[in-house]
Structure formats: C-alpha cells, structure tokens
Sequence to fold (397 residues):
Amino acid sequence: MMQTLHTAYRTFFGKGDALYELYSPYRVCPLGAHVDHQKGIVSGFAFDKGIDFLFSATESGKVEFLSLSFEGLCTFSVSKDMDEKQGFWGDYLRGACWALRKDHRLEKGVRGVLRGTMPISGLSSSAALLCGFVKALAKVNNIELTPMQVIEYASLAEREYIGLTNGILDQACVVLCEKDKLLYLDTQDSSYELIPFGGKEGTPFPASLAIFFSGVTRKLTGTDYNLRVSECKTAAWMVEAYENLPLNDLSATFLRNVSPVFFSKHEATMPARFANRARHFYTECERVNEGVNAWREGNLIQFGQLMFESCQSSIRNYECGSPELIALYEIMKQCPGIYGGRFSGAGFKGACIALVDPTMENEIRQFVTTEYLKRYPEYKDTFECCFCATSDGVDFL
Fold:
C-alpha cells in the first residue's frame, strides 16, 4: 500500500522530502452499541485494515491532500478561517485543523496522499481519518499530544465541526487499542483497560474478525443518528422530572447520570420510544460488563451470545437497522462457525461484524454470501466478506 502512495505522491506533487508514513486503523465494537454518547461503557478492537497516510510538511501552511479512495483534492490553509464546510471528505481534515487551532498555533501545513484499505461503511472511517490527520498536523508543527488529547481533538471535530453528536468510542478504539486485546472503556471518565483473552498476557486472539458489507453505504449525518441521541437525552430528562430532580440543560443530560432504579419505576408510564432508548442503554451497559467478565474467563461462546443479544436490542429498543443489515444478522445467527455478531457502527445500513472460528472462514464466506444474495441479488456486485486480525492503534510507521 505505501508503495502505491509513494508513486501517487511523486506523480501528483513531484519529488518530496521528509516524508512521513502513518497508519490509522478502522475499529469494531463487539459490545457497547449506541451508549458512548450517553457516557456509557463500551468495548472495542482496532483491526488490520484502515487508512494509510503519506505526507510532508509545507512551510507555507497550505494543506494539499489527495485521496485515492474518494474523489477530489482537499486544499486549504491552516491559518485561514474554515467555518464553512465544503460537503466532501476533506471536511474531516478541515475539522481536525479547526479543533487543533482552538489550543495551538499552526504554522505548517501538510502535503500528501491517503488511501483506505477496504470498504468503510460502519467501521468508523471518519475516526480513523480524523485521528490520523490530527497526528499529522501535530507532527509537522512539533506539537506533543497525549493519546487522550488526540481522541479529544478528533471527537471535538466530529461533534462540533462535522455535526455528528457521538461519543468517544470510535476515536478511543483508533488510538488506544492494542493487538489481540479487548478495549474496555468508561466514556464518562475515560478510564480504560486493555484485556487479553482469558486475562493472560500474551494469549493469542481466539477468533477472526469477520466484516460483512451489505453493499449499501450511508452517511451518518443523513440518518436518524442525531435523533436517537436526542431521544436518549429526553428519556433521561423524563426520568429526572418524574423523580423531581433538578434538570440540567438537555445538552448536559445523560442516561449514565440517571439511576436505572429510577428508570424501572417509571418506564411503564413513559412514551414507548423514550423508554425503549433508555432500556437499550441500561441493558447494553450490563452486557458490556458481562461480556468483559466472559472475556477474562476465556468464554468466547458467552461473549458471542452477548453480541447477538446486543444486536437484537439495537433492532427492538434502539430501532436501528436497515432490512439488509437485519437480514445479515439473521443469517449470521444461523451460520456454523460464527460465535456472535451485530451491526457495526450506528446500524443505519453499512456492515455487520462477527467473531468467527478462523478454521471455518471459507465455509462462513460461502454460507453468508449465498444466503444474503438469495434475499438481495441486487447487491451481488457490492456485497463483500472480509476476515481481519486485531491491530494496534494509530501510529507512525
């Protein structure tokens, strides 16, 4: 991949000096769906597919970035205002610059090429892109950032510049994950653990990560993602009101700060949509804790079953999932060799992920592909099945 980027760089920009190579992985979340924006607890893996960056510094402060995965050249100056978005992938680069400028003076820009290594729907390509570019800008401007600062700047860019009201799960996985370990993260205080399978350091990862692309792409800012966040906050507000508790502004209201005991008292009287969102939050946080215990004990069967239960709650309580993704979920449950699986990402189209028996990858590929295309033959040219391994987080090569 890097050789391809070097060729593209020389072709487009001519010979360069002091070139940096950076890899930013995609992520999957086996348990902890849709709870990070409510300060819940989550889990995650980074894996060995993602975005490769090749770049050098520009003394003028100009940013020139070419993507081999998306159309268009991204150009802007790090010193100029960038309040207006352009409506294409380059907005994520602009957002990273916008966030860093809140605390740092940027004088140097970057010139480079990037490329994603697989289809990206549901794997948080936006977090991989943002975290990678935050590190690139910091590198050329000699800014030292802690891992948590990279996460915070990337999250700020996505929330306040791009306009997606998510939590820090995606960015944390991209930055903090380590190969063969499960990330266990509390998004309320950013405390985390990296847990090897069975709780024993050096234990090999017990499964392959399977990624099933439905063939349908989506953009989260054009879905009900932000609406679901507002519904969760409204559910928390309702419970606080029923309990005669002081109310904060809705933007500062989170289900994590509402006792599940209070919710249980009032869920029957709440409008169904709000009760459902809260029910998903509380049960999903329980599944994360149960799953982490199963992972520490080396119980992959139980961990996988919790993944299936998580997806069922996403369908029933969180009410996300396109017909295509629901079909993939049903097929995964029937497929020998799949321990567990669920929608990846927000669950509005995109992909499903699964933990699978690595000795049965060919059989799994054939079974899922055949059954899915029976139902949706129109996706025969865009449906894909990939098997991946876990990886470390974003870093220079």
